[in-house]
Specification:
It is a single chain. The protein is mostly helical. The protein has helices at about 5-10, 15-25, 30-50, 60-75, 75-105, 110-125, 130-140, 140-165, 170-180, 185-220, 225-235, 240-270. The model is unreliable at about 1-10 (pLDDT under 50).
Length: about 270
């Protein structure tokens, strides 16, 4: 037992509570928040001292007031729901397809030689180059948007899964043959656990690309309920507070997705290493 822990056990309940709170506070890393605080202070200063005209840079309070009005009216929550629905639908479809094809490419060298070059060529195609084609095939409604998001999520997942499984050491394959493991058990017990880091790298990329595709699909395809539609509205009506609000929401949601993915990756890899 450490000295601090031993001392804590001899203190009264109130003192122990204070010691615990102090310990938790010390464990929190406040450094990442300093950048946000500095940016917010600069924003306040730029508006207060008139460094940037108010029609181009609203005050932070104006953005907060716009947020309250939008939430009270219910419009922003509806747009947020529509955007997240499209994003998660496309993400699930793209990730599932990427995992399935990536596992097939990694497990079969023949399939890798036949299909692999096509997958790599598709990977090199600029993401937004698919917008006109998908709009012609599926239209600019929800189907076209979700398909575009799925294509964006598919690309990094299929590459990460393919590379992770194909790079399993040959000794592992030989050992699985000695143990008479079936192809399914080899994939489940050997290949996929070994490929987890690269698969999660692909999933991180899928989250980023899918979120970018969500924004792009709502901006460039038919205007419909969603945060991208509100961006178009703010631009056309020159409502600068609405533009800043939606941009901040896009950034915060993307940051939240990335944080959740990192936590899930850490938990799964620790569990896999037991």
């Amino acid at each position: 037992m450490s000295i601090e822990a031993a001392a804590a056990t001899t203190l009264p309940a109130e003192a122990r509570a204070g010691t615990t709170l102090l310990s938790v506070t010390r464990r929190i890393d406040w450094r990442p928040w300093t950048g946000f605080a500095a940016l917010l202070a600069l924003w306040f200063a730029a508006h207060h001292f008139g460094w940037v005209p108010a029609k181009y840079l609203p005050s932070p309070l104006a953005v907060v007031q716009r947020l309250i009005r939008e939430v009270t009216a219910g419009t922003l929550l509806h747009d947020l729901h529509e955007t997240l629905r499209r994003n998660l639908s496309g993400l699930v479809i793209g990730v599932a397809a990427g995992l399935a094809l990536g596992a097939l490419l990694g497990a079969s060298s023949l399939v890798g030689r036949i299909v692999g070059p096509t997958v790599l060529a598709q990977r090199q195609t600029a993401l937004f180059a698919w917008v006109p084609l998908l709009a012609m095939w599926f239209g600019g409604g929800d189907t076209g948007k979700i398909t575009f998001i799925a294509v964006a999520a598919f690309q990094p997942v299929v590459i990460g899964t393919w590379r992770g499984i194909s790079l399993v050491p040959a000794t592992y394959r030989e050992l699985s043959d000695v143990l008479l493991l079936s192809r399914w058990n080899y994939m489940r017990l050997v290949a996929l656990p070994h490929a987890l880091p690269m698969i999660f790298t692909g999933l991180h990329g899928a989250l980023i690309y899918a979120w970018l595709a969500t924004v792009g699909s709502e901006l460039f395809l038919n205007i419909s309920p969603g945060l991208g539609g509100r961006l178009n509205e703010g631009s056309q009506l020159f409502e600068i507070d609405l533009l800043f609000l939606v941009i901040l929401l896009f950034g915060l949601i993307g940051l939240g997705f990335n944080t959740l993915a990192e936590r899930a990756e850490g938990l799964l890899i620790r569990w896999n290493n037991r």
